[in-house]
Amino acid sequence: MFSPNQLYDYLRYYCHTNKKSIIVRNFKDGSINPLDLFIHQNNNNTPYLSGLNLEEPIHKFDGFIDMYDQEPIDIHAIKHEYDISSDELKSTYIKTPNISSLSDVDFMVALSASMHCPIICHSEQNSNAVSTLKQESFIDVHYWAHAVISKFWFNEFKLLQCNRTTNAKRFGVYAREFTGTRKYRLDLMNELSKIHSNVHYHRPNNITELDKWDTNPETITSDSSAYIKWPDHEIFNIQIVPETIFDTEKVHLTEKVFKPIVMYQPFIIMSGCGSLEYLRSYGFKTFSSLWDESYDLEKDSNKRFNKIITLINSLNSMDTNEFNEIMLKSREIVDFNRNLFYSDKFDNTVLSELTGGIDNALINQEEMFYKKPGGNLFILMKKLYSSKSEVLPYHANVIHNVMTHCQKNHPKVANDIIKKYNYLF
After folding, report:
1. Where are the alpha helices (DSSP H) in 252-300?
2. Which of 18, 293, 330, 355 has the lowest CB atom count within 10 Å?
């Protein structure tokens, strides 16, 4: 469907043609560093960004759509990425004084604060981080970003047929990183090492903790999760999918879950509680008729992990005839899922989810402009004033510029702001 850059440019075009002055900002290559958000925008030569100065008052007035859609939102980690960046980049792209001294949440507000409350697009459900941002007057849009992008990444495999075999290993797993939210994967690999002869795996050459795996180390890049080795579909039967996050309250599925679907394989997902239910909500089928999927209902991550390992060991201990019979029965589900993934119906579902969500968010944003005069820009200014008991020159300049624009175009809202925040003027 869309590459990431094509997707974001499409959204800029979509807003532009609907006569919305809002600015769509995105990270580059899955980064979570907010400086990259600004640098990427200033270097992106699209017809809807070229020459833009994001410090202009009009953007503090009209606001932003920020695309936190490729990675799970981690408010603390985003602030940390900024804090460890170079002072030169900080001063070049983010001019708000003392921004490093703000709390993690207030830092997020400062990045996107505007008189039209910011819209944040994300791909997670049941998220405490999203709930926190909504409390700070962010308007959220959920859509499955990786579903949109995966159609582009995996389009080349659409016409390929599978060569089903009964001589394959029973399980396969792809895991390229074992740090941060992915640390649980080491525990997974340690458990799988007990049935090593029945597991297909290539060990990344920089992960020494997995040296005991008798495999050929290989170079793994950041693009590996979006790449499929087609011959692998003949080597193993069931794909174990270790998602980006596991020990979490949220549901966040990436392109990893589509790899077994494209490869004609049944799967077991290692992710947050409710991930299979999330997948089914888009029309896909899972495998509860063939094995125990109650792990998806387990909120405790340790118990969920143990349930998955129990399931894997159960499938591994089956005799050949019993296992092959299950694989034979799985084909109907596997074929259904693959056909759905490559269908126009699925394209329309995920794209309509995005555009419909943005349409509703823009309506909500306009309503909030009148109901909450000043947006979260003035809420932030109030917090900054309270901490210093004064309005700093930079903030005074921002207030002056946006209010000049507001008084000219929305005098009633401007008067409401002056009444509510008189001490800032």
Report:
1. 258-262, 275-281
2. 18
